[in-house]
Design a protein that fits this description.
The complex is a heterodimer of chains A (481) and B (99). Chain A is α+β, with helices and mostly antiparallel strands and 481 residues long. Helix content of chain A is 40%, strand content 20%. By secondary structure, chain B is α+β, with helices and mostly antiparallel strands. Helices cover 35% and strands 9% of the residues of chain B. The chains are: A alpha+beta (481), B alpha+beta (99).
């Protein structure tokens, strides 16, 4: 057993997918030309005043409710003062002592167990701009600022330090990401920076209750970088403590190229930010009716949905996990399962052939031609023996291509199964005559020789004969002759 | 009553990115101490029954709908910038790993 216990807390920043920014009417378009999405308000020009985007408040409350937080009825915004060139006003409008949401919890699976991590708070704040360095002009003495992202609404989600390994921290992040995506408040696109994680890490002797000195790692926007950074930091702190040294509280940058963390700046204490109530914004009073209204529009969350798929539909936990991977996938499956009354068949079709088609076409389920209604019809066609499972696969390929209903495809291509016993018998007799060897083998006791003959019949009917029927008739023919 | 030390003044000056020599630091320490003393008079008030106030306007919930309006043309945005290049605002180089 390790000598030290790792203690990790996480701050997650998620950009809200509102149409406009938090305090002005600019839209933020990822990848737009530098400073093309700005106005005097988000540039912090003197004389401008911010006005709160109501939708951003709604999204923050939505996230709070989904994570089981208490919603702060009487909330306000505060100024956090610091100088950095990506912060146009030299302060960030954030929330200090009255965050919109408090005390939630996130439950997730980790190494086969259910884990619950307490959330300290969720608050709303504005994002900063982006600095680019010499790559723009080759001038290494200057930095360059793009304020498109400045003023985009950001949720800061702060967990208690209750995570005990980098892997567990990632599982927690994924759970939060999944919730935010499900409830539609953030696209959580890590590559585009709409979800960023800052872990704080400390070690303590196993069994100790006291927290050790922590370090914070800045803005990681991929799970891989995040895990590499945390693992490196745990090792670095272990070495320091083993050598009898002390960890210094500081903010670190993780350099993905060297795989090391480097000190960024001494951590500024809360006092240094000189928080004070934002005089340009008035109080926010959230009434109970609004909270209830938002509560009513919350979709079923992934964890609850997984549980329902397992208990109501008899889906295995692994498959339920897969099928709730995205909200669209889960809703597709749910609808198909309800339409057809055959959840297992739906799960198999979705996870097998449909996924294969989607992966090949590099597209998502909600963009595809295949709808739950198509899948339902396909399953009914197999159930009533109109087509075999094998033919159904090719029908699904066609549905995927054309969006036509399976019945129409079957009719147009003449794919309906041959269930006429006499027609099959004629073909069976012909096949037996053409292949006396295997037929004799079967009669002599090599029962598996029938497989070859079934194959030949299927071939002769281009897959349209009902395989069970073929088997049955073949057995009959071979044993009577 | 809290007193302010020269170290305190240096710390605050640093947060505000101001540079003072020793003489100025001494000067501001004395001035700030007098200001704090003066403000400290407020502590004599009995405020137990007064709810904390963070805003003087009797207003709440001033919000805007989530509607997009055009941003400013960036030529205009950058027109007053002391330095602009390739559509960016130019600033002295930022060193992330400073101190």
């Amino acid at each position: 057993m390790e000598k030290y216990e790792t203690v990790i807390g996480l701050e997650i920043h998620a950009e809200l997918c509102t149409e406009s920014k938090l305090f002005c009417h600019c839209a933020y378009i990822f990848g737009a030309l530098a400073n093309d999405c700005t106005c005097p308000v988000c540039l912090g020009m003197p004389g401008t005043l911010p006005v709160i985007n109501k939708r951003a408040l709604e999204f923050a409350i939505r996230a709070g409710l989904a994570i089981g937080c208490e919603i702060t009825v009487d909330s306000k915004f505060d100024r956090k003062n610091y100088f950095y060139p990506d912060l146009p006003k030299n302060y960030q409008i954030s929330q200090y002592d009255l965050p919109l949401c408090k005390n939630g919890q996130v439950t997730f699976e980790f190494e086969g167990e259910r884990r619950t991590v307490a959330l300290r708070r969720i608050h709303l704040e504005e994002d900063a701009g982006k600095s680019v360095h010499a790559e723009v002009t080759g001038d290494a003495t200057r930095s360059f600022m793009d304020f498109n992202r400045a003023g985009v609404p950001l949720l800061e989600i702060v967990s208690e330090p209750e995570l005990h390994s980098p892997e567990e921290a990632i599982a927690y992040c994924r759970a939060v990401k999944e919730i935010l995506e499900y409830i539609g408040v953030s696209d959580c696109n890590m590559e585009e920076g709409s979800l960023r994680c800052e872990p704080n890490i400390s070690l303590r002797p196993r069994g100790s209750q006291e927290l050790g000195t922590r370090t914070e790692i800045k803005n990681k926007n991929s799970f891989q970088e995040l895990i590499d950074a945390m693992e490196y930091e745990v090792k670095r702190q272990t070495r320091i403590l083993d050598a009898g040294g002390e960890v210094v509280q500081e903010t670190l940058l993780f350099d993905a190229a060297t795989g090391r963390t480097v000190a960024m700046r001494g951590k500024e204490e809360a006092d240094d930010y000189r928080y004070f109530p934002e005089p340009d914004l008035v109080h926010v009073q959230i009434d109970a009716e609004w909270i209830e209204e938002i509560q009513l529009t919350l979709p079923e969350l992934p964890a609850a949905r997984r549980k329902r798929f397992i208990t109501d539909y008899g889906i295995s936990p692994e498959n339920a996990e897969f099928l709730t991977g995205t909200r669209q996938l889960a809703e597709f499956f749910d609808e198909a399962a309800q339409l057809s009354g055959e959840p297992t068949a739906c799960a198999n079709w979705i996870m097998g052939d449909l996924m294969r088609l989607l992966n090949t076409a590099d597209s998502d389920i909600h963009e595809s031609n295949v709808t739950p209604a198509h899948l339902n019809e396909l399953i009914q066609l197999i159930d009533n023996a109109t087509i075999s499972g094998k033919i159904a696969k090719s029908v699904l390929d066609d549905v995927f291509e054309t969006g036509k209903m399976p019945k129409q495809i079957v009719a147009e291509k003449g794919l309906a199964q041959i269930t006429d016993t006499s027609e099959i018998e004629t073909i069976v007799l012909q096949v037996v005559e053409e292949h006396p060897g295997p037929a004799q083998d079967y009669r002599d006791g090599t029962k598996k020789a029938i497989g070859f003959l079934v194959g030949q019949v299927m071939r002769a009917t281009r897959g349209k004969a009902n395989p069970q029927l073929v088997n049955q008739i073949l057995t009959q023919v071979l044993s009577t002759e | 009553m809290a007193t302010i030390t020269t170290d305190g003044v240096r710390h605050v000056a640093n947060l505000a990115r101001l540079e003072f020599n020793d003489e100025e630091t001494q000067h501001f320490t004395e001035q700030l101490a007098r200001i704090l003393d003066y403000i400290g008079k407020l502590n004599e008030l009995e405020t137990d029954a007064v709810p904390p106030t963070s805003h003087i306007h009797p207003l709440q919930n001033v919000t805007k709908p989530d509607v997009v309006k055009s941003s400013y043309p960036r030529e205009e945005v950058l027109a007053n910038a002391p330095e602009a290049e390739a559509g960016y605002f130019g600033v002295p180089r930022v060193i992330d790993t400073a101190n």
